[in-house]
Amino acid sequence: MWLTATARKWCWPRSSLRGNGPRYWWHAGVSTAFVWTARYAIIGCLIAAFVPMDAGTFLFIFARNITYKVILLLAITPGGAGIAEGAFPTFFGKFIGTATMTSFMVLLYRVVTYYLYLALGMVFLPRWVARVFIKRPSVHTKVS
Fold first, then answer.
1. What UniProt keywords are attached to this protein's entry (predicted)?
2. Domain limits of the chain?
């Protein structure tokens, strides 16, 4: 019984995506490319906010960020904690300059890309769980 209900829940999204035309998939692909590009450009944008750079340097930082993210995917800690902070100066320290500024950039990067989402999750997740999963008794009014 439970397995059947779960299978139905998983198949519903698949069936709701069938029949969408090329325009839908074009918009989905473009928005996905934009989001992932923004995700990989964030370190370059943070560094460029404090250190002048040209387009070639920005693209080089972008490429290094892709490698950096692969290292974080292999990390065994949640969110790559510790490994992200340790690897950041190795990958991006030469573009930033001083060790103090590099430490500041690591903190700023982690706040913007990781800890902010944890804080937002602490605020919004309990509300969503209460709304979606907690059954409230329905109030039936009797019409005479």
1. Membrane, Transmembrane, Transmembrane helix
2. 24-132
